[in-house]
Specification:
The complex is a heterodimer of chains A (about 160) and B (about 600). Chain A is mostly helical and about 160 residues long. Chain A has 4 helices and no strands. The chains are: A mainly alpha (about 160), B alpha+beta (about 600).
Chain lengths: ~160, ~600
């Protein structure tokens, strides 16, 4: 009697087989999905890395170009060059006795040269690399799947041109 | 029931386990062999490069924003051995276009065994000009086209590489070089500012180099840290004034036959140095020629680096001390009956012309520059304690603190020193037996031109660092004399110039000033016929806006400061008032009334 009851409730062998195959396939799909996500993120990281390298090179080149143009400009505006250009245009050094002085209200020939704003409190700048490029896959999963995203309660600001 | 194959299974499992264990042991062993360390080092070498990033050196501007020192691009040309295909062509191109290179040397480098990692890159030349690199680029392109036509691998400049790097440049050439100093950029790791502002502010200008790892693996690439450029400096120097001073000094030396000279223009109210010319002139763009321009002990900037006996310009200080202390009044008289003053009945002091000038008040003493009178004032009226107290209050015997490198200072010989003699008090009163630098004189005189307040001389007006500008606040060093004394001396010396019809007078502008002729001591005493001719002047007398100091060393046309330095002062002031936009006195007064 006992054996009969066990036999009645026992799964058919083919059913067990199907369950195992199903579980295996589920695992396979899961691994494939994770691998896919990993490959996608890796590809993006590699592309970003190359882009960073390219941008760094561009920054260096632009800085070099700026330095080159600055020195060219400084040479073009040097005293000797300006003098010879002025002479070529027919100018002569001013005789102090021929100078005409006009009082211009508000004009101060000795005013301070301003190249940058005066000292203010230092503001710490945020890192230039986006956080998404500094997050590992594991961090991303923890952040986006297992944790409830915080509610965005910031007021919507009106965009102005 | 026992499996009949149990024993066989056991043997196979044992063999597999032993193999696995053997592999693991071998892996561990290999990791600890010297060869493995070498392999790890090589693999790290291929992972990327560690590079020190040098921030661009700060720019130096004059007070109006004109660039006096900046950076331009130079190229490092080198051989990257792993890409070398044709060493002969590389050696030919490099030795032809870069004159300093030898064909055989380059060929030997380009033919080096490529696998030895420590020899993978050779530097051929640093700071090659853009034009040369453009020629190399063109050549490389031509060779590439030729290879396409002939379908061969030669000729090729593959492996010859150039990398841009910033180098220091002074667009104005020699202008202001004695103030700027120079930056010896050739030895990159040890490069530093030498002399002048470049040395005094080296740390600020340099910024903070950072060593970073640049990986080849794109997964590991990160943005480079933000490297702030070195701080930029705005000088108090006015480029136009500096240019005028250097031109005037050059002409003055050619005309007077002087061995060297310096001219300083300063704002007495702030201590700002508006211009500072000093010979010999030097082009910091070719700083490696330093030894040729400054042989032996030739000072880089004699305005701050050379102490000399200034002669009678120093009488201004003695007279200021006497009037300020009350030891003498403007109408105090001295009766010069013999033209000689005996110090301790042992040492005679003579006037410049060995003549006697009769009764003179203090203005007369200064007007005729009477040594005997000033010796009398120092010894009989002031006394040694008061005299040297005033000298120290005026800053003599110590550095002025100017923000330029290599400031010289000659210590004062004081009564408490063993070597001091009473004769020193007499000679010091008219600027002999005491050595001062031109910048010390300018600093002391600025007190007289600025109502008694002596300002710290400085050449940096602002520092621009991390996007913010810090302006330098003028600082009062000391107030050695009262405002009234300062005005009395100013008026006295303006009157003296007018009475003497001095060549230092400037039409339309009232100026105060004093000439100086300093004997030059030799090992045998004051035996040389050569002198130091000086002039210090300031103006306009009612509201001094400039102090001008002229020193011509060993002029041959005349030994006298009144004949050599005074006309230079006039030439400078005539141009200076235009550059500083100072109207003639009558127009200025009229403007003030309106």
């Amino acid at each position: 009697m006992k054996n009969r009851i066990l036999q009645a409730y026992k799964q058919a062998p083919w059913r067990i087989q199907i369950q195992w195959i199903g579980l295996f396939l589920l695992g396979l799909v899961l691994i494939a999905s994770i691998t896919g996500v990993y490959l996608s993120v890796s590809a993006q990281a590699a592309a970003s890395g190359r882009k960073i390298q390219s941008l760094e090179r561009q920054i260096t080149n632009i800085n070099n170009e700026i330095a080159e143009l600055t020195s060219d400009l400084a040479a073009a505006r040097s005293v000797d060059r300006m003098k010879s250009r002025a002479q070529a245009l027919g100018y002569v050094p001013l005789d102090p006795h021929q100078a005409v002085y006009l009082e211009i209200p508000g004009y101060n020939p000795q005013a301070d040269l301003v190249l940058a704003p005066p000292r203010v409190n230092i503001i710490v700048e945020s890192p230039s690399v986006l956080s998404s490029y500094r997050t590992s896959l594991w961090d991303w999963l923890v952040q986006n799947i297992w944790q409830t995203p915080a509610l965005n309660l910031q007021p919507v600001e009106e965009m102005t041109p | 029931m026992k499996n009949p194959f149990y024993f066989r299974y056991l043997i196979i499992a044992l063999i597999c386990s032993l193999l696995g264990a053997g592999i693991i042991i071998q892996m561990v062993r290999i990791n600890y062999t010297p060869f493995a360390q070498d392999l790890i080092a090589k693999s790290e070498d291929y992972q990327g490069v560690r590079k020190t990033i040098y921030p661009p050196r700060g720019t130096i501007y004059d007070r109006k924003g004109n660039i006096l020192a900046t950076n331009q691009i130079g190229y490092e040309v080198g051989i990257d051995l792993k890409n070398v295909v044709d060493p002969e062509t590389i050696a030919f191109a490099a030795s032809t276009l870069l004159e300093e290179l030898d064909y055989l040397d380059v060929f030997a480098m380009a033919s080096t065994e490529k696998r030895a990692d420590e020899n993978r890159y050779y530097v051929l030349s640093s700071f090659v000009s853009k034009e040369k690199v453009e020629e190399l680029e063109l050549l490389k392109e031509n060779y590439a086209n030729r290879r396409l036509e002939t379908k061969s691998i030669k000729p090729s400049l593959s492996g010859l590489v150039w990398t841009p790097m910033q180098q220091r440049v002074y667009p104005e050439g020699t202008l202001g070089a004695n103030v700027l100093g120079f930056y010896n950029y050739f030895s990159r790791e040890n490069a530093q500012g030498v002399f002048g502002v470049e040395e005094a502010y080296n740390r600020l200008l340099t910024g903070k180099p950072q060593t970073v790892f640049l990986p080849n693996d794109p997964y590991l690439v990160e943005a480079l840290p933000d490297i702030e450029p070195g701080a930029s400096l705005v000088l108090t120097i006015d480029r136009d004034i500096q240019s005028m001073l250097e031109e005037t000094l050059d002409q003055a030396l050619a005309w007077s036959g002087g061995e060297g000279g310096t001219i300083i223009v300063a704002d007495p109210k702030s201590g700002e140095i508006l211009g500072m010319a000093s010979t010999p002139f030097f082009n910091p763009n070719q700083y490696w020629k330093y030894q040729e321009t400054f042989p032996g002990i030739t000072p880089y900037n004699r305005a701050v680096g050379t102490a000399y006996e200034p002669g009678s310009v120093f009488k201004v200080i003695t007279m200021a001390a006497a009037l300020d202390s009350g030891a003498a009044e403007l109408d105090t008289t001295y009766n010069d009956t013999s033209g000689v003053y005996w110090v301790a009945n042992s040492w005679p002091i003579y006037n410049w012309n060995y003549g006697a000038w009769g009764v003179q008040d203090m203005t007369g003493c200064m007007q005729h520059s009477l040594n005997v009178c000033l010796a009398y004032v120092a010894i009989d009226l002031l006394g040694e304690d008061l005299f040297y107290e005033y000298l120290q209050a005026f800053g003599f015997g110590r550095s002025t603190g100017i923000d330029l490198a290599s400031e010289a200072n000659f210590p004062l010989r004081l009564p408490e020193n063993n070597q001091w003699m009473s004769l020193d008090l007499a000679t010091n009163s008219f600027g002999q037996g005491i050595a001062v630098t031109p910048i010390q004189m300018v600093t002391a005189i600025s007190a007289i031109a600025n109502d008694g307040k002596m300002m710290t001389p400085h050449v940096v007006r602002s520092v621009v660092d991390k996007g913010q500008q810090y302006n330098v606040t003028p600082q009062v060093i000391n107030t050695p004399i009262s405002a009234q004394t300062a005005r009395d001396i100013t008026e006295m010396l303006a009157y003296s110039l007018e009475e003497e019809a001095s060549v230092a007078l400037v039409e339309g502008y009232r100026v105060s000033g004093k000439t100086g002729t300093g004997d030059i001591p030799t090992e045998l005493g004051y035996t040389s016929s050569l002198t130091n001719a000086s002039f210090v002047g300031w103006g306009p007398t009612d509201d001094p806006q400039f102090v001008v100091y002229v020193w011509i060393e060993k002029p041959t046309i005349s030994p006298w400061g009144s004949e050599v330095a005074a006309p230079v002062f006039r030439d400078v002031v005539e141009q200076l008032v235009v550059l500083m936009r100072i109207p003639p006195d009558d127009i200025r007064m009229q403007m003030a009334i309106e």
